[in-house]
Amino acid sequence: MKELILVIAKALVDHPEDVRVNEREDDRGTVYELSVHADDIGKVIGKQGRIAKAIRAVVTSAAIKSQKRVIVDIIS
User: Fold this and answer.
1) Keyword Ribosomal protein on this protein (predicted)?
2) In Å, how far are 57, 71, 72, 73 from 52, measured between CA atoms?
3) N or C: which end of the chain has fewer CB within 10 A?
4) Rounded to whole angstroms, how far apart are CA atoms 70 and 56?
5) What pLDDT, on a 0 to 100 scale, did the predictor assign at position 18?
6) What is the pLDDT at residue 65?
7) CA dist list (Å): 12 to 9, 25, 29, 51, 61
8) Cβ proximity of 5 and 55 under 8 Å
9) pTM reported for the whole predicted model
């Protein structure tokens, strides 16, 4: 799952070397924290959050196989 988020995020940003994904377990499930360069935060979120919603939808769909709850948080 972590690799999937990295591939998607690196394709969107101008500074792919600054893309980081941290994985942690929470009471809500597995939380992936996506961190990008400050200049790229708008590219990852998109207009009205459309790209962020799409990333979350793809990751959630991929997580259905493993029957886990997955959350993607975008931080700068």
Assistant:
1) no
2) 9, 11, 9, 9
3) C
4) 9
5) 94
6) 84
7) 5, 26, 26, 10, 20
8) yes
9) 0.88
